[in-house]
């Protein structure tokens, strides 16, 4: 099981895989009652053809399972791929499964993503979303300090509520949500993984989720080097 650290405290861990590049090839060749036992140049050309011509169903027979630890703001962007996976053109009926830790059941120490003073970004000039260049370091220092103070206050109120006997599912209301790390398992077809990578590795995607997309690409390529080369950016 391989893991890549992301951001300040996050990570992506490859838990399991089903299949290989050969799985994609044989899923396509079954139409002609043929099967390859070892990947060769013809098989590589077939994978590239499938990707080029948007014949995506063979890529759904290979599966990857990840454990991800990321701020909630990243998780909720990622979740859109689970909700929309059965409705997006070219990704319809692709396998996606998601199981996430819940503070209704666990009371482990809250962990938060806190940007360093040189990591705060300005709003973009020509868009209503996304970000621009880094802000001045004095401004970044101000907001790193402010965020830490805000988190400290939320944690104190959360702990007080728990000590006073308030249930965990309500006490968590005091925790600053968007920067809090959450952990989940994501199981997805190779096609769905590639779709996520292609969209979230782009320069106009949120910087934090870009870093996770890069980690997913590295880990997925180790198991499916030919297919990922063909269907990802």
What is the third-level CATH name, the topology of the largest domain? Gyrase A, domain 2
User: Order of SSEs, N→C?
Assistant: EEHHEHEHHEHHH
Question: What is the CATH class designation of the largest domain?
Answer: Alpha Beta
Going by CATH, the architecture of the largest domain would be 2-Layer Sandwich
The whole-angstrom Rg is: 21 Å
Low-confidence stretches: none
Q: How many distinct folded domains?
A: 2
Strand count: 5
Structural class: alpha+beta
Cα shape:
elongated
Give the CA-CA distance, first to last residue. Answer: 25 Å
Q: β content, as a range?
A: 15-25%
What order do the strands of the largest sheet run in, or round the barrel if closed? Answer: 1-2-3-5-4
Oligomer: single chain
On the 0-100 scale, what is the average pLDDT?
90
Overview of the molecule:
The chain has helices at residues 21-29, 41-52, 72-84, 137-163, 168-171, 190-200, 207-223, 225-231; strands spanning 2-6, 10-18, 63-71, 96-100, 181-189. It is of the alpha+beta class and 233 residues long. It folds into 2 domains: 2-105 and 181-231, Gyrase A, domain 2, CATH 3.30.1360; 114-178. Helix 1 (21-29) crosses helix 2 (41-52), helix 6 (190-200) runs antiparallel to helix 7 and helix 7 packs across helix 8 (225-231). One of its GO terms (molecular function) is thymidylate synthase (FAD) activity.
Give the topology:
Layout: E1 2-6, E2 10-18, H1 21-29, H2 41-52, E3 63-71, H3 72-84, E4 96-100, H4 137-163, H5 168-171, E5 181-189, H6 190-200, H7 207-223, H8 225-231
Antiparallel strand pairs: 1-2, 2-3, 3-5, 4-5
Helix pairs in contact: 1-2, 2-8, 6-7, 7-8
